[in-house]
Amino acid sequence: MNATKALILGLIQGIAEFLPISSSGHLELAKNLLGLQDVPVLFDVILHIATLIVVIAVFRERILAILRALWNWLFHRGKVLSRGLTKTQKKKDDLNRANLAYIVPLIVATVVTAIVGFVIYKFIPQAGVKVVSACLLVTAAILGSTAFMKPGNLKAGEMGLPRSLFIGLAQGIGVFSGISRSGITISAGIFSGLDREAAGEFSFLLAIPAILGAFIISLKDMGQMTASVSYGQLAIAFFAAMASGYFALKLLMKVIKSGKLYFFAPYLLVVGVLGLIFG
CA-CA distances (angstroms) from residue 32 to 66, 202, 268? Predict the structure, then answer.
């Protein structure tokens, strides 16, 4: 690998992680084109950490609000649940309850993701350009189907256990290279009746434990990665992923609000077909 190739992979990761076109699939296709098949999965996961930083930065207010609500519930439960509150206190109490309501769905969906992801990763082969291309076509079909869905009005904290299980299952399936994690989880949220913006927000909040888990599991490949990628090249790719990811996430949230998630389906259809033909 050289600096130019590292920059290209970083830009691809940042853009494809947030736009629902599968960063893992595009990275695998790009590495195949650039002759970088020997670069281990840990490199991809570290680039995911770069985009995770973007998620935390963009959704920092919601993340901090959830953590504050959890802290209050654990250590000041009497105050949070007390009666006879003033109007201002009642407003804070309602906000605490709304933010606490995120926690169970996030935990449930994360557990399901871990189980499904482990089974797929352990027992189902998924390497190869043709497999990735086929998965891109599946993502295109999923995104295209959102065009026929009426917008829901549920918030993430109102989703309940069945919807949490469904979205966690969707994210688990996103382990396949070519299945867009953001695309399939946002679509699952929309199919479940979530408000479009809530579906997008929940999808990216759910990515935090998934990416951290993948990073921890992949650390065993650190020695293999440093044999093919220098720390300088890794830094170039990392910061390129952060920069491109920030703008891609901002763009995607606008697309989600407008209900045009299916706009990405034709692109994936073309790339998937070309991959099947020439891969």
Answer: 41, 32, 18
Alpha-carbon distance 130 to 263, whole Å? 23
Cα dihedral 218, 224, 228, 233, rounded to 10, equals 40
Separation between Cα atoms, residue 164 and residue 170, nearest integer Å? 10
d(CA 101, CA 148): 29
User: What digits encode the pLDDT tens for the residues 61-114?
Assistant: 999 999 988 888 888 765 544 455 566 666 777 788 888 899 999 999 999 999
Q: List the chain domain ranges.
A: 3-59+100-278
Q: Is the pLDDT of residue 193 over 90?
A: yes
8 A C-beta contact, residue 252 and residue 18: yes
What values do phi and psi take at 194, rounded to 5? -75, 150
pLDDT, average across residues 24-29 = 88
Q: What is the pTM of this model?
A: 0.88
Q: Which two tokens stand for residue 36?
A: 């970088």
Residue type, 215: F
Token pair 């996961």 in the structure block, residue: 45
Q: pLDDT averaged over the chain?
A: 88
Rounded-to-integer distance, Cα 208 and Cα 111, Å = 13
pLDDT tens-digit series, residues 151-180: 799 988 888 899 999 999 999 999 888 999
Contacts of 39 (CB under 8 A, 6+ apart): 1, 31, 225, 228, 229
**In Å, what is the CA distance from 272 to each residue of 44, 51, 153, 195?**
21, 24, 33, 29
Is the dihedral angle over the CA atoms 116, 119, 121, 126 positive or is it negative? Answer: negative
Spatial neighbors of 274 by CB under 8 A, at least 6 apart, are: 133
Residue (of 177, 186, 180, 179) closest to 205 by Cα position: 186
